[in-house]
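Appendix B. One record, verbatim.
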Amino acid sequence: MEERLDEQKFKQAQVALAELESADYDRAQAYAKDLLSGLKIIRTFPQGVTIFGSARLKESNKYYKSARELGALLAKNGHTVITGGGPGIMEAANRGAFEYGGRSIGLNITLAHEQSPNPYLTDVLQFEYFFARKVMLAMSAKVYVFFPGGFGTMDEFSEVLILMQEKKMPIMPIFLFGKTFWRPLDRFYATKMTALKTINPSDRKIYKLTDSVEEIVAAANKIGHPKVKSNYYDGFASAQHSIHSKI
């Protein structure tokens, strides 16, 4: 009797495992679909300037106004503007580029409380998963700009920062716009993390605090205008592998 029960439990466990493996396979397929569709589409426009920031800031906010000004100035200089496609800072940057007649791209995310794309987009990419969207926000950029924001903005900044710190992605300009907002964080890095030697002093040079939209545009102009279908990530991983293999 006990042997029969053990055999029954074993069969139940095997069925559960098979179902779990099937679910994992389906999940992996869904992840791959999100990534592949994104990669295919971002190759249709040149790498531009990706702008991050709070979705909650309104049109009357000074950072909204600065993001709108930045979007327009980038478009004037021929740079594509890329955002997460939502409201707030994202809308402001897209709006500035759109109103000038430039290319304004939104990488939108499907949420339980639906985030609708803002009305100032020339191109929209829709994603199911945050991680796939973040990959595209990174890979589509030659310059990164972080306006004041919440946990989402901090998450995106931290991820780009550590990838550059660990040389997992090309070093590109990172601007933290709004010195009064970002200075306490920079001070924390200096007085706590650097003092404790959890980061190197040089790590704080990866990013720069600014209040100047002109400084950001100048950095984009210095890089120039990559050709469509080219990408600064192309060959980066293999080059890094070659470097490490010689060490």
